[in-house]
Amino acid sequence: MKNRTKKIGVFDSGLGGLYIAKAIQKMLPSYDYVYLGDTLNVPYGGRSSQAIYDFSENAIRYLFEEKQCDLVIIACNTASVCALRKLQTEFLVNEFPEKRILGVIVPTLESATELGATQIGLIATEYTVSSKIYEEEIVKITPSAKIYGMPTPLLVPLIEHHGEKYMDMVLQDYLQPIIEEGLDSLILGCTHYVSIKDRVRHITNHRVRILSQDEIIPPKLRTYLLNHPEMEERLSTGNSFTICATDVNQGFIKNVANMMGEELPIEKVNCA
Fold this sequence. Notes:
Elements: E1 7-12, H1 17-27, E2 33-37, H2 49-66, E3 69-74, H3 77-95, E4 100-102, H4 105-114, E5 119-124, H5 126-131, H6 133-141, E6 146-151, H7 155-160, H8 164-179, E7 185-188, H9 197-203, E8 209-212, H10 213-227, H11 229-232, E9 241-245, H12 250-260, E10 266-268
Parallel strand pairs: 1-2, 1-3, 2-9, 3-4, 5-6, 5-7, 7-8, 9-10
Helix pairs in contact: 1-10, 2-3, 4-6
């Protein structure tokens, strides 16, 4: 038996990635997890590419060096769009060749095509939609599939500031133009949107398959670990879940408690 001392990290620009981390832990409960939210710099959607890359590299370096993670999932779609490729091809190769960083975009598109999706809507941040990375990646998997992107910048503020009474109206306004394209599926391309997936299903009258990353990433990670025993054999199995953030305030503490179903200690960390 190899020495199991390494953890799985989940990184997000803020709070929403906890939905992904919680879903992963539910499916794969035996491992040790460290969640890191860059709450000091959230939201990433309006930042420059260089700033997003720097924030992402700093956070992942912290998880590698200070939290003994050997595998990190970037839950944030904006960071996956902007930083993942460079992190994998330069940062890892030059500094941490034995470690791995995974994103959420390719697994999401793989799941979509496995379900037969060809007319795929995408709601996400302005940065994610304008990057066209979903379009670039779907062509590699299923060239005949088409992505219809719609930036939805009002959704995260409404989610974070309890704007539920406005949500249906805003969602209807965002979704109507792309629904009319004849979608068979809709990707929720931001971690925060996990919290409104049932609302989206209701608004679309369940006529469109809703692809939510909390349902996609856990089984994809399980498959990854089965296919990469050299990584799985390094992972510690203490069934622990640690939450870290670069800024901790009462609103964040309350939101974490609501999401996790209990009050959990939150460690304030400095990744800069």
